[in-house]
Amino acid sequence: MTMAEQAPRQIAIKVSPEGDELITTGAHFLQMSKKDLVEAAVAFYLNARREEMHDKMRALLKQLDGSRAAQIALLAGVTREELDAVSGVNEDEEDDLRMEKARPTLRCLRHDLAQEIPPARIPLDEIDHPLLVKATERFADDQVSHERIAAVDDEVLLKVKVQRWRGAAWVEDSNLPWLVAAGHRQEGSPDDFYAALAARGRTARRRYNAEHPSAHDHKTYTEDLLPRREDRLRWGIEAAARARRKLKASVHTLVRQSLLDGHEHAAIFDGAVVGIHIVADEGHETYVAIRIIGSVPQDLVGAILVLIPGCDHGGWMYDYAMPERFAASDEQVWSNIMDPAVAAKFLSQEE
Question: Cβ neighbours of residue 323 under 8 Å, at least 6 residues apart?
Answer without folding.
Answer: 264, 277, 279, 287, 289
